[in-house]
């Protein structure tokens, strides 16, 4: 009888302790990065977001990351490693982690997953992305005014909707202010190869481009522009320190507030699977300070006005009429492209030369 | 086509191809002595980060390149010690060297990512890459020392019987390979894309390895092969920018595909393999026999 009483007491103590520790334990948040946090581009900004979340939530969360995770079967291992080491919330921060994220999420139904820039969701998998194309519209407007050779060089990574959308938004805005503008596109088929990005940049400059736009992750193109004396837009983060005489502005990805909100939801137990696609209005996309040395004040003012208009919903990057390369009407006059069309965009708008690789 | 444009394209091809020539010729010398070192990528990265960090700290380009080459020598000595003295498996050790190099370079460069530096003009190195290939070609086919090195790679037992120090010669060849790979790396982080980024060589070490096979172990063909690989990559970018649609993915795998084709071609005739590939490649040398 005494023995049974002892066992009961013991188990009760354990129960109370484990209950107590469950409340006191910080939630563990894990991140999967495609590159190193020091790339000063895409991954860097996710890491800035992670640190912001950490500082906002303090002791309520701890965070870890795995860097340089390739977009193949290795990603499954990396995600599973985080999932099986007690993480409560895992952010996978590149498009091609999509299927891997879902695969691991199926094995760990109690862990919350968030996949960046993807479109496949599950009960425990959210997706989130930013409307970077809003920034491309402003870049395009600036480029249309600033170019002297009427030739823009665009270094693209992979032909996914995200990148194609950026090219289209850029071209629509640029050709609106400068109908003679030509856009030359090089697909590098990599996110991350400083040498190749520099090659592409130099090739475009050699072919007469006087402004470079990039959708790859390092600052090599911006550096090449600086060296050649042409202009460039930074990518993902403010890259002005690497190319002070070339950097017009950059589209910055601000993930911090989102990460903090989602981690808070996990702490509060209110997390649910959602699809978030925020833009300038929510501060997820921000333009770096415009370069006053390079841009006339009037143009800077125009760009700022555009930012306000986009935030207020008065300006949309894809306002009709928009035609594709074959001349078919894709968005009618007076309408704007809906999110479904934007999310699956795999065609160039009319006026862009060349064929979109498939 | 106007001259200006063509001149620009040639310039970009020269700048982009030079690291392949350095790493390729270094690996060729190593393989000619009968040792396969798969650590090219790792040694390039360590060379790149050493040069970059030295430059940031001292601001001296000569020191940067000296230390970088020294780092290549150290890395390859480590490899040489393992495969020559301890007789570990060359393929496994080489792979381990690459993985080690990736990790080590990331660790060394952790605090230097995104530090801006003043890049150096690549032209000295571009010219030097041609000089070194001609020098190695001369060395192999016109000097006694070169003949001995090749003999060691073909039949180490015969070379040993004739009284040549097989291990000593292989050690020197491996070190030369390491130094060249480090030079290729430092060229990348200081001239080509002046920055340090983790994994910034992005697979060029593997292309250099493929290049040696593609060149069928002939120094002159390293130059030809490298310029085919580099030229195709830059030309396809130009075609893209001209709006001519070419599958870029195809060109990314072209170097490896070309190497496979060469492998098939040279293996179709046993004699041709014997003529080109060093016969003792990857075979360890036991002094007792």
Description:
The complex is a heterodimer of chains A (358) and B (289). Chain A is built from 11 helices and 14 strands. Chain A has a 6-stranded parallel beta sheet with strand order 2-1-3-4-5-11, sandwiched between helices. In chain A, strands 7-6-8-9-10-12 form a 6-stranded mixed beta sheet, sandwiched between helices. In chain A, strands 13-14 form a two-stranded antiparallel sheet. By secondary structure, chain A is an alpha/beta fold. About 2% of the residues of chain A have low confidence. In chain A, α3 packs parallel to α4. Chain B is mainly α and 289 residues long. Chain B has a single domain, classed as ABC transporter involved in vitamin B12 uptake, BtuC. In chain B, 76% of the residues lie in helices and 0% in strands. Chain B has 12 helices and no strands. In chain B, α5 crosses α6 and α9 crosses α10. The chains are: A alpha/beta (358), B mainly alpha (289). At the A-B interface, β7, α7 and α8 of A face α1, α10 and α11 of B.
List the defining traits of the structure above.
heterodimer, A: 358 residues, alpha/beta, Rossmann fold, 14 strands, 41% helix, globular, B: mainly alpha, ABC transporter involved in vitamin B12 uptake, BtuC, 12 helices, 76% helix
Give the gist of this structure.
The complex is a heterodimer of chains A (358) and B (289). With 358 residues, chain A is α/β, with parallel strands linked by helices.
Low-confidence stretches of chain B: none
* Strand-pairing-aware structural class of chain A: alpha/beta
Unreliable spans of chain A: 16-22
Q: How are strands sequenced across the largest beta sheet of chain A?
A: 2-1-3-4-5-11
Class computed from helices, strands and strand pairing of chain B: mainly alpha
Total of DSSP H or I helical runs spanning 4+ residues of chain B = 12
Sequence-ordered SSE layout with sheet pairings:
The complex is a heterodimer of chains A (358) and B (289).
Chain A: H1 2-24, E1 27-32, H2 42-57, E2 61-66, H3 73-84, E3 89-92, H4 98-107, E4 112-116, E5 125-130, H5 132-146, E6 151-156, H6 161-177, E7 182-187, H7 194-206, E8 211-214, H8 220-228, E9 231-236, E10 247-253, H9 256-268, E11 275-278, E12 285-287, H10 297-311, E13 322-323, E14 329-331, H11 339-343
Parallel strand pairs in A: 1-2, 1-3, 3-4, 4-5, 5-11, 6-7, 6-8, 8-9, 9-10
Antiparallel strand pairs in A: 10-12, 13-14
Helix pairs in contact in A: 2-9, 3-4, 5-6, 5-10, 7-8
Chain B: H1 3-32, H2 40-58, H3 61-85, H4 90-109, H5 123-142, H6 144-154, H7 156-161, H8 166-192, H9 204-214, H10 219-241, H11 248-267, H12 270-276
Helix pairs in contact in B: 1-5, 1-8, 1-9, 1-10, 2-3, 2-4, 2-8, 2-9, 3-4, 3-8, 5-6, 5-10, 9-10, 9-11, 10-11
């Amino acid at each position: 009888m005494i023995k049974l009483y002892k066992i009961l007491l013991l188990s009760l103590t354990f129960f109370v302790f484990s209950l107590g520790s469950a409340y006191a334990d910080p939630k563990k948040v894990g991140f999967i990065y495609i590159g190193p946090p020091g790339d000063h581009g895409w991954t860097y900004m996710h890491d800035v977001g992670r640190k912001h979340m950490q500082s906002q939530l303090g002791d309520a969360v701890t965070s870890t990351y795995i860097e340089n995770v390739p977009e193949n079967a290795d990603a499954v291992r990396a995600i599973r490693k985080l999932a099986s080491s007690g993480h409560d919330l895992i952010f996978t921060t590149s498009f091609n982690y999509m299927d891997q994220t879902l695969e691991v999420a199926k094995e760990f139904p109690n862990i919350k997953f968030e996949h960046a820039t993807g479109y496949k969701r599950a009960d425990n998998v959210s997706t989130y992305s930013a409307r970077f194309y809003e920034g491309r519209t402003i870049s395009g407007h600036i480029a249309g005014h600033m170019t002297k050779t009427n030739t823009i060089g665009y270094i693209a990574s992979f032909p996914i909707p995200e990148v194609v959308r950026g090219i289209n938004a850029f071209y629509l805005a640029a050709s609106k202010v400068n109908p003679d503008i030509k856009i030359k596109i090089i697909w590098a088929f990599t996110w991350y190869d400083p040498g190749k990005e520099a090659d592409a940049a130099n090739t475009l400059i050699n072919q007469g481009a006087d402004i470079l736009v990039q959708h790859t992750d390092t600052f090599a193109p911006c550096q090449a522009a600086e060296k050649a004396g042409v202009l460039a837009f930074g990518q993902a983060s403010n890259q002005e320190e690497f190319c002070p005489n070339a950097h017009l502005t950059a589209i910055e990805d601000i993930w911090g507030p989102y990460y903090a909100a989602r981690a808070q939801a996990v702490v509060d137990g209110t997390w649910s699977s959602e699809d978030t696609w925020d833009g300038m209005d929510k501060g997820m996309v921000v333009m770096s300070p415009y370069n006053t040395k390079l841009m006339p004040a009037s143009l800077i003012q125009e760009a700022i006005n555009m930012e306000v208009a986009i935030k207020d919903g008065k300006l949309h990057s894809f306002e009709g009429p928009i035609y594709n390369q074959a001349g078919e009407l894709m968005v009618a006059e007076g309408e704007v492209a809906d999110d479904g069309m934007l999310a699956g965009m795999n065609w160039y708008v009319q006026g862009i030369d060349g064929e979109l690789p498939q | 086509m106007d001259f200006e444009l063509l001149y620009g394209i040639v310039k970009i091809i020269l700048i982009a191809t030079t690291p392949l020539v350095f790493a390729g010729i270094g690996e060729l010398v190593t393989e000619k002595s009968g040792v396969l070192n798969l650590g090219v990528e790792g040694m390039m990265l360590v060379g790149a980060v050493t040069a970059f960090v030295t430059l940031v700290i001292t601001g001296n380009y000569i020191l940067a390149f000296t230390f970088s080459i020294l780092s290549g020598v150290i890395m390859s000595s480590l490899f040489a010690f393992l495969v020559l003295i301890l007789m570990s498996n060359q393929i496994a050790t080489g792979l381990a060297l690459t993985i080690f190099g990736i990790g080590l370079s990331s660790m060394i460069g952790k605090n230097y990512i995104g530090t801006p530096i003043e890049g150096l003009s690549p032209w000295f190195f571009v010219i030097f890459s041609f000089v070194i290939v001609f020098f190695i070609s001369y060395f192999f086919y016109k000097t006694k020392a070169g003949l001995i090195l090749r003999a060691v790679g073909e039949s180490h037992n015969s070379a040993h019987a004739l009284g040549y120090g097989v291990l000593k010669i292989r050690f020197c060849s491996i070190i030369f390979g390491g130094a060249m790979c480090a030079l290729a790396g430092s060229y990348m982080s200081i001239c080509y894309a002046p920055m340090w980024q983790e994994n910034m060589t992005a697979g060029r070490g593997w292309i250099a390895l493929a290049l040696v096979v593609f060149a069928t172990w002939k120094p002159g063909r390293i130059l030809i092969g490298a310029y085919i690989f580099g030229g195709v990559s830059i030309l396809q970018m130009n075609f893209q920018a001209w709006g001519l649609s070419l599958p870029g993915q195809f060109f990314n795998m072209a170097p490896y595909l070309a190497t496979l084709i060469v492998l098939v071609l040279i293996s179709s005739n046993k004699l041709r393999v014997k003529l080109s590939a060093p016969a003792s490649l990857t075979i360890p040398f036991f002094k007792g026999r």
